[in-house]
Design brief:
The chain is an alpha/beta fold. It folds into two domains: 135 residues, Response regulator (Rossmann fold); 66 residues, Arc Repressor Mutant, subunit A (Orthogonal Bundle). The chain is built from eight helices and five strands, in the order E-H-E-E-H-E-H-E-H-H-H-H-H. The protein has a five-stranded parallel beta sheet with strand order 2-1-3-4-5, sandwiched between helices. Helix 6 crosses helix 8. The protein is elongated and about 55 Å long. It starts with 19 loop residues before the first strand and ends in a 14-residue tail after the last helix.
Amino acid sequence: MESQGCPGSKTDVMAIDSPFACMIHTNHPIAYSAIARAVSQDQSVCKLVKPCLNASVPEIDGRSCVLILDTCSVSSWETLARKWQSDGKKTILRVSPDARDHGEELKMLYLGVAGIVTFDDNLDVSLPKALRGVAEGGLWIRRGVLNEYVKQTSLLLERFNAPDQPFTAREQQIVDFLRQGFSNRQIATAFSISERTVKFHVSNILNKSQISNRRQLQTTRRP
């Protein structure tokens, strides 16, 4: 599988100071067994594996938690991933090799997931490597998708840092809030304006920036 693991060649021998506790969310018992077996291949990264039964984000014995989410059997996987991301947790998505799509994987990255792996005969090899890469602060994703993600993010940075950026003063304020992940309601409360007005400003911001959704704003930061 063509993937990108970070930080690099040291990942095969480097020990993790604080092993992850892995939560697995799937509605298929066979999938759970396969994922749990694969995760257990590298106990220097993960020493505790448990099923995740709902959208709660637990702390287990002081360890950091990573969620391995089965998109093939969990229809609400995007909502659950958003919940974990909002609580500062890491998520690895399991996707079907038949349903793999370049554009969909980009959307998953914009959602904030840390890794994407396919459920195939190499899961016992690919998933432990993905988990190790994520544990060391990196991403695990196909190289072509990662390259496109970097390219799009660079274009966004150029647009936002252009001296002739056509945002109004209020739009620029809202851009700063959007980058931090604030909802329309939170922004409306902060500026004492209606949510309808916020939606109007957000629509103008997206049009001027030539991007399709607010998630992409959250992937960029001004230097």
